[in-house]
Amino acid sequence: MQVAIDGPASAGKSTVAKIIAKNMGYIYLDTGAMYRACTLVAKQNHLAYDDQSGILKALNNNIISFKNINDDQRVYINDKDVSFDIRTPEITANVSQVSALSEIRKKMVEIQRKIAGENNIIMDGRDIGTTVLPNADVKIFLIASVASRAKRRYLDFKEKGINQNLTDIEKDIADRDYKDMHRQISPLRKAEDAYQVDTTDMSIDQVVNKLTQIIKKNKKNK
Questions:
Q1: What are phi and psi of 122, to 5 degrees?
Q2: Residue 13 labelled as part of a binding site
Q3: Which CATH number fits domain 2-217: 3.10.250.10, 3.40.50.300, 1.25.40.10, 3.40.720.10?
Q4: Which residues take part in binding ATP (predicted)?
Q5: What's the predicted TM-score (pTM) here?
Q6: Residues 123-158: pLDDT tens digits?
Q7: CB-CB contact of 188 with 32 (8 Å)
């Protein structure tokens, strides 16, 4: 069973996908974290964020992996937990540039498809239903206003001890939306057969319940 959840930054994809995967006993794969890890590899190796060949070469010596620790998915580069490092403002500001590199996307998509082919999976990102898993059993596209997404990210940063101005976060999200929707490789867009859910005025529990209903309905009809 393959479930694809797409949508813009901070629409709630990762949060609800993790909860639903845990509730249903599925594997959860945060593709955005993979591209953030690629961006961190570039930073750690003093590479320009558009240096495709350099980043690809660095990835051969910097293996990205996931581990579940106390029901929390952690991201590792080699043996180091980088779950916090990949969420800093600098990585957030540059991940769109790295994720737009065609060979980087090709390498990550190969890994994503392999994992999806071996498990019941919930995968979230920008192009899961359109490119990574075009034949997914369920496709969901989450949307929310820029203001509500910025507030969510602001509170998330605050909880992690990262101080950033709300207005700056709104601008960053709007800029990220534009980059994601206008990139040449796998732009952010809703798959024709995806369910669209607006999370602007919904709580996490409400979104989880709504998406779970959609998934279970399609699972029953499969």
A1: -120, 120
A2: yes
A3: 3.40.50.300
A4: 7-15
A5: 0.81
A6: 999 999 999 999 999 999 999 999 999 999 999 888
A7: no
